[in-house]
Known about the structure:
8 helices; alpha/beta; single chain; 6-stranded mixed beta sheet; 7-stranded mixed beta sheet; globular
Amino acid sequence: MTTPPYLKSGNKVGIVSTAKRCEPHEINDALGVLNNWGLVPVIGRNAFSSDGYLAGTDEERLYDLQQMLDDTEIKAVFFTKGGYGTLRIIDSIDWTAFKANPKWLVGYSDITMLHSHVHNFGIQTLHAVMLQGMPGSTPESSESIRKALFGESLSYEIPALPENNSGDIIEGTLVGGNLSMLYSVLGSVTDIDTTDKILFIEEIDEYLYHYERMLLSLKRAGKLSGLKAVIVGSMVDIKEATLPFGRNDRQITLEHFDCPVYFGFPSGHISDNRAIILGRNIRIKNSGATVNYEFI
């Protein structure tokens, strides 16, 4: 997998909205963080447009992203918000310049759509908190973005949970992101090959039965077989429907994976949303009380 060039002080970075609409005040603090890192934010001309729920029309959102992908002076693209909307433009993106000159794409949730698509080009991306969420995230979350983008070593030591079905030392390429997004791209050109990979998943605001339905859909499509391991990030508001489902989300997860499973990784729709490098090899080492995750 190709690693985009690491950033350095003075680099320009693009700011775009491909999904939910965003107001300028929502990202002011995050822009200050980027400035403190020595980066120069370049805000897309439609970043604060609106078209109902969306951050402008499809044409406006596509224009901004395309400009940032094509501009060789832009060394990374940060997304303002997730929500929904990237799916509406993904098939209209021209990736020619990006593939010739890769750059970091930074975001999560709805941006899983872009992570998955770009993975199929053999290019690494950064699953991390977006600009709107940066002020409310932990210092460790923002620092993990900086370390990843500036080429510093990235590793985490996370308490082991009793539900873990873990191995000793496992190494493989990390793929994945938001489960709803992975489910939504099944069978499309954005779909990813998970064979011999380590799969990361996170989710928010789903019923337990729908959570299982998504896992079963991936399972029927062959995405859950041949995995080296599964890393489960935050599962926020995975809730009961009218009738109790009878199993919680961790029990459901363990039922559908026959590989090592590691729960409780701090990534997803929580304040402690640590950056992970999709497409990069990761080594997982279980030491009993803790699990060490090291990007190599």
